[in-house]
């Protein structure tokens, strides 16, 4: 399998070459040259596999530069009941007739990002050892991504994490989750500023090419192909659990922000998994819902980006969206480049409403969408608690609310549960008047000793800190 750039760079790369990279050299995103096809006989073979073996089968179709035995061992080491809280890793439960929740949030940080990040940690350690190299991961987080990255990379050989976050702005639970890690290869940096300051620092450091090369700076952001690929697996696992045979269709609803999760669903569907509809659920930051309703993709300004009670979906643009648009326009790299570099770069928007390709987003690619608001979230959390004695988090509530607007008779609807309610306790209290239950292993974490450096919002200060903490 070779990988290409959505913007047409002539070079073709292999999996392990793009594993440790971000964007392609021309600013595009990497995608496989084609999507391997999975037929009914293969689905039948895969149906009863344990999750780790299913992951190995799916990954093998896209990774041919890691020996099979090694890849199998990496999958087996990653997807264990110990790490993910249940032997079936992503258990499905029926909420009401035909509506299911697929649990993706029982990993170390209680959000679905662990599903991919845990694999990435093991792939990084493997590949860095093979090359005899080291990597310093520099990131910016307002919550879920940073903690998932730290829990995936803690104790891994050859990897250090430098994670910036806005000082005092994450929830007390999220701060405690990250700052209580005592692993010497994990460095928390609380920046005196807001999340945008952290992102600007990461950009400034990455743009200093000499520094970047000297200190081997890398990232783990959501455009990483390996992360997306890891997420493809649980669409198969959800499908098998919701159906009894391989001639049935299911639909998925995906609480969405950067379009990574639902893009993995698009890849699974493109491989031949019988998915009828991929429903994109957004919160008040409805960039994606607007596109699927109107054909207009319009990036929001910072002032126009809302702080909501489903904060992991608070995006101004969707960083993985270019992957889908590339497929939507028939894999025309010149067209993708002109949309994202030309129109979007110059005017902050592009308009496909009059393009015949746009209609195919629904007809050929199966996409639908809706949005959900704070009031919807509260009502859905209350209703789910009352009728089903089930507590869901704010992002999953957006998904469930939206899913009910897209039900089709006889087609199971699987809502992806993207986090556990304890991570967003304030809103649960607002909805129910009581705090969510806390898993035993997180009891009292706020009182643990903290390992965090306070730095000014200044790229030079962060560079000096990195330089001072590399061996
Ligand atoms: C990251 C995240 C999302 C959004 O996922 P994308 O892949 O960015 O679309 C939704 N819910 C939760 C809880 C998240 O952490």
Q: In a nutshell, what does this entry contain?
A:
It is built from 20 helices and 15 strands.
Could you explain how this protein is built, in words?
The protein has a domain at 92-110 and 225-432: 3-Layer(aba) Sandwich (Rossmann fold), CATH 3.40.50. Helix content is 43%, strand content 15%. The radius of gyration is 21 Å and the shape is globular. It has 471 residues and is α/β, with parallel strands linked by helices. The strands form 4 sheets. A 6-stranded mixed sheet has the order 3-4-14-9-10-13, with helices on both faces. The chain has a 5-stranded parallel sheet with strand order 8-5-6-7-15, with helices on both faces. The mean pLDDT is 95. α17 crosses α18. Pyridoxal-5'-phosphate is lined by residues 111, 113, 144, 222, 255-261, 312-313, 395, 418-419. Residues 111, 113, 144, 222, 255-261, 312-313, 395, 418-419 line the site of pyridoxal-5'-phosphate (PLP).
